[in-house]
Structure formats: C-alpha cells, structure tokens
Amino acid sequence: MISQQNSVWKGYFSYNSIKDISQSTTTFYGAAENAYFKRNVATNEISTTSTIEGLSGQTITQIYYSEAYKKTIIGHVDGLLVVVNEKDGSMLNVVDIVNKPSVPPNMKKVNHINEYNGKLYIATDFGICVFDLATSEFGDTYFIGSNGSNIQILQTAVSNNTIYAVANGYGLLSASVNNPNLVDYNQWTMTASGNWASVTTTATDVALINLSGQLYKLVGNSPVYLTALNQMSLDARFSESNYVVTTQNYVYVFDSQLNEIFRINNSADSTTHFTCATVLSDKVYIGTQERGVITTTQTNTTAFQNISPNGPDRNRIFAVKSFSNGVWAVYGDHTIYYNPHPLDALSVSRFEEKVGWVSTPYSSLFGAKSIVRIETHPNDEKKVFFSSYHSGLLKFDNNLPSTLYDATNSSLQAYLPLQPTENIRVNGLGFDKSNNLWVTNSLATNPINVLRSNGQWQGYSLSVLQNPAVVSYGRIAVDKNNTKWICSNSAGIIGFNENYNNRCLRMTEGSDSGNLPTSDVRAVAVDNKNKLWIGTAYGLRVLSSVDSFLTQDKLTANSIIILEDGLAQELLYNQFITDIVVDGANNKWIGTAGAGVFYISDDGQKTFNIFTKENSPLPNNTINDIEINKVTGEVFIATESGMVSFRGSATSGTDDLENVVVFPNPVRPEFGGNVAVSGLMDKANVKITDIEGNLVFEAISEGGTVLWDTRNFRGSKVASGVYMVLISAESGEKTKVKKVMIVR
C-alpha cells in the first residue's frame, strides 16, 4: 500500500531519478529530486513524503536515517536540512546553512552525511558542519581550506578517533575527532595528497577511491592500491558488512576487508544509469537516474525488480489534460523564446485512479519529439491529440498512438520545407463546436490549421500578419462563436473566424492597438460570461465580450484595477502569466513564471488565495500548466519541479442529474477530507439525512459540486451508517437520490 496526501492537496511526484539512499535494519529509504519514500523490506509497505507532507520542494542531494535517534535527515542543494522524527512524524526545517552570510549561495550544497557518536558531520561545498542529533541543532562549522577558507568537502569518515575528509582538489585531510578546536584549520593535516572522490570506513579499514576510479586502503597514512574500477565512482558506502561502490554502469560489492565478492554489470543497458547502491537483507538496492530504485540478488545479478512508488516519468511536467477519471501528462517543452532545442525524446504518461501511472515510451510515438500540449475529443475521451513542437500532431486512439500528422499527410507546414517530417512546430490545440480540431503552426505561412471531424485538413493564413513565418504561436482558445483566439510571441493575441469571410483581428501593445502591456501573449481563456482573459509576459488584460470581434474593427482590452491598502493597483501587474483556467464557478486560476498561482473571483476583484511554494505544497513557483477536472473539481498544477493538485469544489454544472457521483463511498475511518457530491446542475439543492430522515447537512451548489465535511449542523462528525443524499434541481422538476456509507 502507499500512504500519503492530505484532504485538500495531493502530490503526483516522480520517484524515477534517485539522488541518494539510506536504510535501517528493516526499512529502505530512497530520495528522488524533491521527495522521498521508505519501504519496509518485510511487508513491502511504502509511504511517501513530499511537499504535501511539508518538504520544501528544493532539490534533494542526500538522505540519511539514524537508527539510534530514529530520525531521517534530508540535505538539499541550497543547504537546507530537514529532520523528520520517525517516532511522531514531525518535521523540522533547519536553515543554519542556508542562512550562513559568509558563504555564497551557490556553495551550500550538502554532499554527504556521516554519523558518529550522536553527531552528524555534514560535508558541504564550503566545509564541514556539525549537527547534534539529540537536540537537532547545529554546532561548529569547520572551514578547513587554506587559511580557513571555504573548501568543497565531498565525504567524511571516522576511524580510530580520526576524522577524515576528502577535500576536492586538496587531497585527504584528517584530524583527531576528539580535538575540541577543530574549527582551527591548523588542526587539520594532509594525510594523502591527490584527487580523491570518497573516503569510507569499513569494519577494519579506511577505503579511498580517487577520481580515476582506483580503489585504495589506508595503511597508516599511506594509501595502498588494491584494484581499478571500470568507471569513476559515484557513491561508496559501508552497509551490513559490505563495502558497496557504485559507478554509472557497475555496482561492486566487497567484504569488510575490501575483497570483491561480486559485481553487477549494467553496461549493456544504455537507458539506465546507476547513481548509488546498498545491501540490505541479502538484496542489493540500486538507485538509478531513470528507473527509480531497482533490486537484485547476488545469485541473479541480471534480474531487476523496481520498488519505487508509482508516479509520472518525470517531475517536470510541461502540460496536463484531465479526463473523467484521470489525467494525461507530457514532458516535452520549449524555452520562453519558443526554442524546442535540445529536442526531447520523451514518453507520454496517463494516470487513472484505479490503475496508477502508465507510460507510452518514446519508441512507440512515431518519432514525435518535444510534445508540449494535449487535447481530448469532446465526445470521445479515448481520442487524444498531442502537439509536438518539432514533429507535428500525434493522435492516440484507445490509449495507443495511431497517427502522426506532419507536412506529408496534412496541411501542417515545416519550418524548413525540404524537411517535411521535421521542424513542424505545433503548439496550441482547441476543438470548436463542430468537433473540428484547430492547431497553431509556428514559423509557417499558414499559422492556423484545422483537422475537421471528417478527417480533412485545411490551413489558413492570418491577414493581420505581414510576415507570419517569423512568428511563434502558443495556446489557443475557441469561443461560443467559433472564433479562434491565438497567442503569439510578437504579434499579440489574434482572433480568427473562417465563418465570417476569414475575419481576422488582433490586439497588441499600445492604447490604440489593443492596450496589451506587451505583444508577447502566453495564455488565453474564455470565461462563462464570454469575457476573454489574456495573459502576457507583462501582465493581465480582459476583453469585455468576445462578441465584439464580430461587430467591431478595433478591439481594446483593459486591465483589472483592484484596491490594495486603499490604493488602486493593477491586478498581476508585470507578472509573466503562463496559464489561465476558468473553473465551474467562473473563478480564475492564473499561473505565473515565478509567483505561483493566483486564485481569483470571476471578475478579478477578489483574490481568494495566492499559492506559492512558501505557503502551500507547490514545489516550485514557476507554473507550466493548470488543468481542472470538470467532474471532480480537482485542480492540477504542473510546475517546474513536480505536479500537485488542489481538490476544489468548483466544477461545471450539468444539464441534468443523471451522472451524479458521491465520492469517496464508502468513507473509511482513515479518510479525513470532504465527501464530494458532483455531477450536479448549477444551484441544485443537496440535502443529506440519516437513515431515519434526520437532516444533517444542506447546501446549494455553485456549479457542479457540493462538499460535505461529514459533520452535522452542530459541528460533530456523524456516526457510522448509511446516509441519504437527496438532490433536486433549482426548478424542482428534476430529482435524484444517492446513498453514502460512513465507517468510523
């Protein structure tokens, strides 16, 4: 089983890129980029810890479990230390290294954690920090470079009351671990010159590996050569009487006297690269860059089992699209300047509640690179389209790739005409009311193309552009009039409607040209009141009605002015907006590049919340995409460092009550969230009674969902039992009855 999450936020993190591992006598710990998991080796129970549980979202570099103190310590690239008390689950952020004023911010990385006599010796890019495990407080810092300067320490070890430190480029330094004056760099001596990568204490020896991959043991103060590894060492540790060394393609297991017992060779697999390894309960646990943690045994070193939690292939999800019971995710991208290079050859992933994450590998995608957007067919969610910002348009049928459209079989145009299957930069996708799929085609003379419902393609020019082949295009929105609104990097927002003689208008910067703050438009959305919301690289604008496109020759958008501390301010002034999504209650979710997510009211006058990594489980403040599941109200937020979701209540109202769903059902004792009644008509009346007819809850829906916290009108949690959910439309003509079971 996998245990995690809270009642409002949920994490969708990848555990494929393993940064470090640790272990207790019964449990394996694996740290990915910004989350970690632990697995009981006897029961195979897995639990995960991420920003949902309180981690910072920063990049993890080290993880260490202290058996004596029952604490898990997570070190980060910025020097942050997180101490998790495994007895009660409490989490402490220790920022002493982060806040060291004498050390440059880029020199605070935690490189290694070593425990000795109740203290952690933390190797960093500037020196050694001492941390007291009993008090969870920092003590001294050893700056042991020349004249007490900063020096990168890669690893430490303690043997026979001597502490050894590998100083990058300065050899192996040592001192008496009991010396009370180790803050004095003069107390440290050079034990072995040379370029060392690691120092590790075994049961009887001190093992050294140099940057050339040669293994030595320390005899007195002299390194004695033992053997050569096939590659440079990436990780070396001593566990369960075994000295374990990891390189990119090999794991070497030695006994405590440094005699090789066996090795694992992965050099034939070019898709998997090792990062670290350990031995626990006669199994070898190997962290990888791409496949999470895999295990094998000494007797069968070619058979691997993956033990990482199920998750997306990568944390950096560029776009996400929901369907009834899950989401699609893609990882391809382009820069803010719409440059797809270096090209990504990555998978496509799908998540379903009862299945988990399943990926379609790049090898099955007909060569489609840098996939950047997703759209599902309005009437058939088994038909899914993916835009490739290099290879055209990819179609899936029944969860499998079926067709790749490029310049040879569609109206799409290649940036270089002599390469009809490459440099076809498709980005925005949107269906119109007739189920025709419209796509943007960057650097092309026909920037907008349509795949009609009958399978025919057609490309259109945009009359407002003098040189469309130098313009890059982003997202697209289709309004109720079938007007297509196209984001561009230099031509503003462009409206196009082929049903009105290919009518084409645009709004760009300047008070006489549309009043946008810049011609670089990144996001567009049509809300439930037919207003057009426009997100640019320098702020937000709103067109009061999309109907004006059909009646006016000049369009002007306006900023939203709000009062802040009694002063008039422009909402989202100068913010780089990456996405705008409208929920079922017509509220807006606005993603930014660096300021998190703004959740605002339908008119923008009220800001409900600003979610950032500092005040919420967001792992990063740069937002790539936002998507709302219209059935459940779950808001998916894809960031540069992972995806989380917020369980909202604003789903779209339906036309009837035929698809009402109550979930979860049954409500089990461990569940601490809200019961959602979704699939409602707007302004439906929801009453919940016990089996005897006593009313315990009542609400009017705003949109398609009502949430119940399983409490009665007195604020007490209701008892175990079956409860009736009585639903009626606003007019009273349509009704529905559902049941929900509560188990306490």
UniProtKB/TrEMBL annotation:
Coiled coil: none annotated. SUPFAM superfamilies: Calcium-dependent phosphotriesterase (SSF63829). Keywords: Signal. Pfam families: PorZ_N_b_propeller (PF21544), Reg_prop (PF07494). Residues 29-189 form the PorZ N-terminal beta-propeller domain. InterPro entries: PorZ_N, Reg_prop, Secre_tail, WD40/YVTN_repeat-like_dom_sf. This is Two-component regulator propeller domain-containing protein.
